[in-house]
Design a protein that fits this description.
By secondary structure, the protein is an alpha+beta fold. The protein has one domain: Peptide deformylase (Peptide Deformylase), CATH 3.90.45. About 30% of the residues lie in helices and about 30% in strands. It has 3 helices and 7 strands; from the N terminus they run αβββββββαα. A hairpin with a 5-residue loop joins strand 6 and strand 7. It is globular and about 45 Å long. It starts with about 25 loop residues before the first helix and ends with a helix. Bound molecules: ligand K1U and zinc ion. The site of ligand K1U has 18 residues, from strand 1, strand 4 and helix 2.
Length: about 170
C-alpha cells in the first residue's frame, strides 16, 4: 500500500466531474487500499479519488473517531444519493485539499446512498450525523465541488489566495 500525494486547491482536476467506474479490477482494489491508507495517514475521515488525481467515481471514508471503537473503513464506488432529508445539519467542515481552513456548511442531516462495493455488489445505506456530512462532502468531490463553493465569493477568494501562497511555499521547499 502506498500513501498518495493529495492535490491542493486550486487544481483543475478538483473541479472536474469524475467518470463512472465501469469495471472492478484488482488495480481499482489496490487504489482503494492506497486511498484508505492516505486518508488514515493524513489524518482524515474521507477521501475522494479526484483528490489523488484519479477522475473516477470512488470514495473512501471512516467516521469512527473514537480510538476505543473498531474502525469502519468504507469504499463506495459510483455512489448516488437516492434520498435526502428536509432537515439540515450545520457542520464546520475541513478538506484535505484545503489544509487548515474550516467553515460551516449546511447540508441535509440524513441521506440514503446507493453504491457498488469492491466485490461488485449493490449496497444501500442510510447515513446520519458525521457520516451523512462526510459522504455528501465526498460525493461533491466526485462532482467537482468543494466545501468552499458553499461560501460567499469573498470568503472563497480569501481561502483560494491562502492556498496559492501555501502551494508557492511548498514548491520552494
Ligand atoms: O474529503 C476530504 O477532504 C476529507 C475531509 C472530510 C470531511 C471533513 C469534515 C466534514 C466533512 C468531510 C477530512 O477528513 S478533513 C480532516 C478531518 O475532518 C479530521 C481529521 C482528523 C480527525 C477527525 C477529523
Ligand atoms: Zn474534501
Amino acid at each position: 500500500m502506498t500513501v498518495r500525494p493529495i492535490l491542493i486547491h486550486p487544481d483543475p482536476r478538483l473541479k472536474k466531474v469524475a467518470e463512472p467506474v465501469t469495471a472492478i479490477t484488482d488495480e481499482l482494489r489496490a487504489t482503494a487500499a492506497d486511498m484508505l491508507q492516505t486518508m488514515y495517514e493524513a489524518p482524515g475521515i474521507g477521501l475522494a479519488a479526484p483528490q489523488i488525481g484519479l477522475l473516477k467515481r470512488m470514495l473512501v471514508m471512516d467516521c469512527v473517531k473514537d480510538p476505543d471503537l473498531p474502525a469502519r473503513p468504507m469504499v463506495l464506488i459510483n455512489p448516488e444519493v437516492v434520498w435526502a432529508s428536509e432537515s439540515t445539519n450545520t457542520y464546520e467542515e475541513g478538506c484535505l485539499s484545503i489544509p487548515d481552513q474550516y467553515a460551516d456548511v449546511v447540508r441535509p442531516a440524513e441521506v440514503r446512498v446507493r453504491w457498488t462495493d469492491l466485490e461488485g455488489a449493490a449496497r444501500e445505506e442510510h447515513f446520519t450525523g458525521l457520516w451523512a456530512t462526510c459522504v455528501q462532502h465526498e460525493i461533491d468531490h466526485l462532482n467537482g465541488r468543494l466545501f468552499i463553493d458553499y461560501l460567499t465569493p469573498l470568503k472563497r477568494q480569501l481561502i483560494t489566495r491562502k492556498m496559492e501562497k501555501l502551494k508557492r511555499e511548498r514548491a520552494r521547499m
